[in-house]
């Protein structure tokens, strides 16, 4: 798509959407939102960028291939699942810090699990779409 | 309102099934999406619909003070929506792949004559 | 004991990595397994003799009543010793017999597996465990019969054997489960306590039919006997081991084992006596027409099995003792004859009795083995066979009236015919003049003639000194079947009485037959004319017809059109649901519980239905995709109305991505084509509408049911207290049901991997067609 306005706009939209997605991710435990939605919004941000520029440019921007986000996310989620085992509690027990952190709020194992979901969703969506678009070209 | 939704679900199911029975693979895929939407709405409706009371606890409170929408169907459907995206993308790529190989959108072209002799 | 049973399984697995080192001289080493086990079971003799039983229990699937329960008593011990004893000799014999064979390791693997399975059958106390081992023997037998898998006849025979024994096993399983279910325990020992209950139960007849089906197929009883002659395609050591001494006796074992549980009634006795009687006479008669050594032996084995079933059917103390003696007698002489036949085949290259003669001049020790075994099978005095035959006559004479005459005559005829068959297999090849073509024949490795000779000599030793085994082995075995002490020591000499007279008549009859009848290809042909009436042919044609019908049936139902399958499934679902709705009573609608209708909702639903209509009727792909996305966004709005913000957000983003996906892929595809004609479209439309209607009715039905909110309430109440979250949906996803979410993202990852591999896959030019 060769639209200068859209192209310029997407340059600004990308960081804003990414920030928004992280916001959605972090507030997921208290307000509507969470890893799935956050991840999807982040994925849309990159897809938009790839539409206006092209897939290779977006991949360059990402620095790492989105497919490598999938194992990272899975590992993070699994780790947060098994982390309670190391302190002698059953698997998947929620662990929380006692005091809330500034900006982020309460931090616990569930947040890291959600972060894992977020990464997997970005990885899966971008891998699928980018592979398809590269194949079509 | 429930009755209107029931009719909507019936229409979604009927159109989904109708599309599933087509010979074109793209129509089959659209049929799958329609059916998925119908199923999601059905689950949603059967959990009971509540207006303007999301299952989110008030900022100040620790427990629900008012009635709230059933969170379980919502969690189920959320999962279903995301999974269906995975299925759709896989199916659509499969379709593309088949199209490139046999150069047709017709399901019947996938039946090779040799198979029918068995 | 668990280890003893499982040792064979473990060893057979070890052959996979280490088998290739065993091809050379080391092959002898593998015989250590059965020899060790033989010694192990020998050590139980004193305990069994004192009337003690050995029981071992290891839980396996206790919730289903399946446990590794093993029980060693007289009957099990007799069979265990046969299995490991004959097994040792067969293991030793097979090493030179199959020397240099490519798959020797595989052969020993199957053989070890079989031995373990067979030990499992005779030692298992749990009927389900017994069934598992029972099937394992069928499977290992399948591999052993088809061992020469390059040969079509071999493959076919193994399939027939598997089909017959496997089918019987299937019925047996039903019978065993029924027994276990009715008696409340799957342990045979515990079933003994409820035998009266089982026998008086209305399902007793069904249990008997099922159990008999299993036993008769396995032990090759008429009309299922035909798989056994076919099984002779196996290498001879296998025939000797499986198809004469052990596996085919599993059915006998089963009957013997269940005799105290199910036996003692007319329904038990008559089928066994009649089927056993028919089998023994039918196959003894057939055996004297055969010209192939192994074929003669196969038919005489079937006759012997029929004899055993017959004896168990009579069910008196004498007959059961006779059965346990005859099991041992038969195993000794028949294995010996088989191994002899194997050597003859191996050295001369033929098994045709019409050609074999005079081999005593070149195979001296072997001829001793063959002749001694034949004499034992004939039941000459001072052989073990004599004692067995005496007991059989004693058993038949114990019955009264018409039965006595009928059964005794039957036994007499069978024994006479068997004697002739035994002479043909054991004596005929060694007597007479040596043809020139066999002049170069020489004795093989000592293991090959040593094994049959040892078995044959053992038959003579036991014949002279039956006290070696009667208290130690045979009486305890008969005791298990009869459940009361049998105090009749085996005697070498009974004095001059009716039994001796019958023995004499048998001998005269058989010998006369042997002298008069000369086996020839012509007489074989004369009996093969009746093949069309043989059970093998009838069951074979039944199988062929079943195949034809199933092919036709499959062609109709499985015609390769996806939408036809779908149509059938959907119509069936509609009928099922409609039936349930129809029988479930009238559909009530309570309007007062419904929520009010507002105008913006109706507008959204209206747009939705319009979008659905456009999707279904769209002429182009792009229109359909756009309309589909409109549907998605409208549903998203509905989620907003009804307090599901998370769902709305997810649906919105996913819908956007789906459109992108469709556009990316479908951009280059050709326009929509309408393949179906009007009639098909109307038919599909009716079916689809019916389905939609049924679903709507179901939804209304469910709406009238009160919602059980216990689980929802738990999540709502504990979201903050336990999981420190306030958005309950998200708390469910990442905390309460985190494991589900974990699997969900795994599934997503798999979908991504699938997409990537589908697209990156490059087909070779040859596969493009």
Automatic annotation (TrEMBL), chain A:
Membrane spanning stretches: 12-30, 36-52, 73-97, 103-132
NCBIfam families, per the entry: PRK12509.1
Subcellular location: Cell membrane
Originating organism: Parapedobacter pyrenivorans
Protein name: Na(+)/H(+) antiporter subunit B
Record keywords, A-Z: Cell membrane, Membrane, Transmembrane, Transmembrane helix
Top-rank taxon, per record: Bacteria
One Pfam family, short name: MnhB
TrEMBL record, chain B:
Primary location recorded for the protein, binned into one broad class: membrane
Record key words, sorted: Cell membrane, Membrane, Transmembrane, Transmembrane helix
Cell compartments where the protein resides: Cell membrane
One Pfam family in the UniProt entry: Oxidored_q2
Organism: Parapedobacter pyrenivorans
Membrane spanning stretches: 6-21, 28-49, 72-95
Official protein name in the record: Cation:proton antiporter
UniProt xrefs under InterPro entries: CPA3_antiporter_subunitC, NUOK/Mnh_C1-like
UniProt entry tagged with the keyword Ribosomal protein: no
Family of this protein: Belongs to the CPA3 antiporters (TC 2.A.63) subunit C family.
Domain of life: Bacteria
Cellular component GO terms held in the UniProt record: plasma membrane
From TrEMBL, chain C:
Domain of life: Bacteria
InterPro entries reported in the protein's UniProt record: CPA3_Na-H_Antiporter_A (IPR050616), MrpA_C/MbhD (IPR025383), MrpA_C/MbhE (IPR046806), ND/Mrp_TM (IPR001750), Proton_antipo_N (IPR001516)
Pfam families cross-referenced by the UniProt entry: MbhD, MbhE, Proton_antipo_M, Proton_antipo_N
Residue ranges of every copy of the MrpA C-terminal/MbhD domain listed in the record: 607-670
Subcellular locations according to the entry: Cell membrane; Membrane
GO MF annotations, alphabetized: antiporter activity
GO biological process, one term: monoatomic ion transport
Domain NADH:quinone oxidoreductase/Mrp antiporter transmembrane, chain residue ranges per copy: 124-414
Positions of the MrpA C-terminal/MbhE domain: 681-760
GO CC, alphabetical: plasma membrane
Keyword presence, Metal-binding: no
Membrane topology of this protein: Multi-pass membrane protein
Keywords: Antiport, Cell membrane, Ion transport, Membrane, Transmembrane, Transmembrane helix, Transport
Sequence intervals crossing the membrane: 6-22, 29-48, 74-95, 107-124, 159-181, 201-217, 268-289, 296-314, 320-341, 362-382, 402-427, 447-469, 492-516, 565-585, 597-616, 623-644, 656-673, 685-703, 742-761
Domain NADH-Ubiquinone oxidoreductase (complex I) chain 5 N-terminal, first and last residues per copy: 63-108
Name used for this protein in its record: Na(+)/H(+) antiporter subunit A
Protein source organism: Parapedobacter pyrenivorans
Lineage: Bacteria, Pseudomonadati, Bacteroidota, Sphingobacteriia, Sphingobacteriales
């Amino acid at each position: 798509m060769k639209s200068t306005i859209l192209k310029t706009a997407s340059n600004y939209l990308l960081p804003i959407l990414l920030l928004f997605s992280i916001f959605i991710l972090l507030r997921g435990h208290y307000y509507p939102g969470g890893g799935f939605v956050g991840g999807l919004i982040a994925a849309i941000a990159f897809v938009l960028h790839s539409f206006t520029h092209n897939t290779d440019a977006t991949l360059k921007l990402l620095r790492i291939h989105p497919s490598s986000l999938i194992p990272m996310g899975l590992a993070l989620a699994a780790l947060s699942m098994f982390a309670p085992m190391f302190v002698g509690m059953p698997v998947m027990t929620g662990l929380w810090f006692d005091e809330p952190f500034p900006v982020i709020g309460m931090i616990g194992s569930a947040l890291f699990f959600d972060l894992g979901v977020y990464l997997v969703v970005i990885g899966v969506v971008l891998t699928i779409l980018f592979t398809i678009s590269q194949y079509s070209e | 309102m429930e009755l209107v939704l029931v009719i909507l679900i019936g229409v979604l199911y009927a159109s989904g099934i109708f599309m599933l029975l087509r010979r074109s693979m793209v129509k089959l895929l659209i049929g799958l999406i329609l059916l998925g939407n119908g199923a999601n709405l059905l689950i949603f409706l059967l959990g009971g619909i509540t207006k303007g009371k999301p299952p989110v606890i008030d900022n100040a409170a620790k427990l629900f003070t008012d009635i709230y929408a059933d969170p379980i169907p919502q969690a189920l459907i959320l999962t279903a929506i995301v999974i269906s995206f995975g299925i759709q993308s896989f199916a659509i790529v499969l379709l593309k792949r088949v199209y490139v190989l046999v150069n047709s959108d017709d399901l019947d072209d996938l039946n090779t004559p040799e198979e029918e002799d068995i | 004991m668990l280890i003893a049973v499982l040792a064979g399984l473990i060893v057979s697995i070890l052959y996979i990595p280490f088998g290739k080192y065993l091809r050379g001289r080391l092959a002898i080493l593998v015989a250590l397994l059965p020899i060790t086990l033989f010694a192990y079971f020998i050590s139980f003799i004193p305990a069994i003799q004192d009337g003690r039983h050995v029981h071992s229990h290891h839980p396996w699937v206790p919730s289903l009543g399946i446990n590794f329960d093993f029980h060693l008593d007289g009957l099990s011990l007799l069979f265990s010793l046969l299995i490991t004893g004959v097994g040792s000799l067969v293991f030793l014999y097979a090493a030179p017999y199959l020397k240099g064979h490519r798959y020797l390791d595989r052969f020993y693997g199957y053989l070890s597996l079989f031995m373990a399975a067979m030990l499992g059958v005779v030692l298992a106390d749990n009927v389900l465990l017994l069934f598992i081992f029972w099937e394992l023997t069928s499977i290992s037998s399948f591999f052993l019969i088809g061992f020469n898998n390059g040969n079509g006849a071999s493959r076919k025979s193994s399939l027939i054997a598997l089909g017959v024994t496997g089918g019987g096993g299937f019925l047996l399983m039903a019978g065993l489960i029924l027994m276990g279910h009715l008696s409340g325990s799957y342990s045979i020992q515990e079933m003994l306590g409820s035998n009266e209950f089982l026998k008086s139960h209305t399902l007793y007849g069904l249990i008997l039919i099922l159990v008999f089906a299993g036993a008769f197929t396995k032990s090759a009883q008429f009309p299922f006997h035909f798989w056994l002659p076919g099984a002779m395609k196996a290498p001879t050591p296998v025939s000797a081991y499986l198809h004469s001494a052990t596996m085919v006796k599993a059915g006998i074992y089963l009957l013997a084992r269940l005799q105290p549980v199910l036996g003692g009634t007319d329904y038990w006795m008559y089928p066994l006596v009649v089927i056993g009687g028919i089998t023994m006479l039918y196959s003894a008669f057939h055996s004297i027409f055969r010209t192939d050594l192994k074929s003669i032996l196969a038919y005489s084995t079937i006759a012997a099995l029929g004899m055993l079933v017959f004896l168990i059917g009579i069910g008196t103390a004498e007959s059961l003792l006779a059965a346990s003696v005859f099991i041992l007698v038969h195993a000794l002489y028949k294995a010996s004859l088989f191994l002899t036949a194997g050597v003859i085949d191996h050295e001369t290259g033929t098994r045709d009795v019409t050609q074999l003669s005079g081999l005593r001049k070149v195979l001296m020790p072997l001829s001793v083995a063959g002749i001694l075994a034949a004499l034992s099978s004939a039941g000459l005095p001072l052989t073990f066979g004599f004692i067995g035959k005496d007991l059989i006559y004693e058993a038949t004479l114990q019955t009264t009236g018409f039965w006595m005459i009928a059964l005794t005559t039957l036994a007499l005829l069978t024994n006479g015919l068997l004697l002739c068959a035994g002479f043909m297999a054991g004596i005929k090849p060694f007597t007479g003049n040596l043809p020139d073509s066999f002049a170069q024949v020489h004795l093989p490795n000592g293991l090959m003639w040593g094994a049959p000779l040892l078995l044959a000599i053992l038959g003579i030793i036991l014949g002279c000194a039956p006290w070696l085994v009667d208290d130690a082995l045979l009486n305890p075995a008969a005791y298990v079947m009869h459940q009361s002490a049998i105090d009749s020591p085996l005697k070498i000499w009974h004095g001059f009485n009716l039994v001796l007279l019958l023995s004499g008549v048998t001998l005269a009859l058989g010998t006369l037959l042997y002298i008069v009848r000369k086996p020839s290809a012509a007489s074989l042909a004369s009996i093969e004319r009746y093949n069309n009436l043989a059970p093998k042919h009838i069951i074979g044609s039944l199988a062929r017809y079943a195949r034809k019908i199933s092919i036709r049936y499959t062609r109709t139902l499985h015609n390769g059109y996806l939408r036809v399958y779908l149509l059938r499934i959907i119509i069936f679902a509609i009928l099922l649901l409609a039936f349930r709705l129809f029988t479930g009573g009238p559909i009530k609608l309570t309007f007062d519980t419904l929520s009010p209708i507002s105008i913006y909702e109706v507008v959204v639903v209206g747009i939705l239905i319009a979008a659905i209509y456009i999707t279904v009727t769209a002429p182009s792909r792009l229109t359909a995709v756009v309309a589909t996305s409109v549907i998605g966004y409208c549903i998203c709005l509905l989620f907003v109305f009804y307090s599901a913000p998370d769902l709305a957000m997810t649906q919105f983003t996913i819908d956007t991505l789906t459109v992108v996906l469709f556009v990316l892929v479908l951009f280059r595809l050709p326009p929509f084509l309408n393949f179906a004609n009007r009639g098909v479209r109307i038919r599909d439309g009716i079916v689809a509408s019916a389905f939609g209607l049924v679903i709507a009715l179901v939804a209304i039905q469910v709406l009238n049911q009160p919602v059980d909110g216990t689980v929802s309430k738990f999540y709502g109440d504990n979201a903050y207290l336990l999981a420190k979250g306030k958005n309950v949906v998200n708390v469910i996803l990442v905390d309460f049901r985190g494991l589900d979410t974990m699997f969900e993202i795994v599934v997503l990852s798999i979908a991504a991997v699938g997409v990537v591999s589908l697209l990156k896959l490059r087909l070779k030019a040859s596969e493009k067609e």
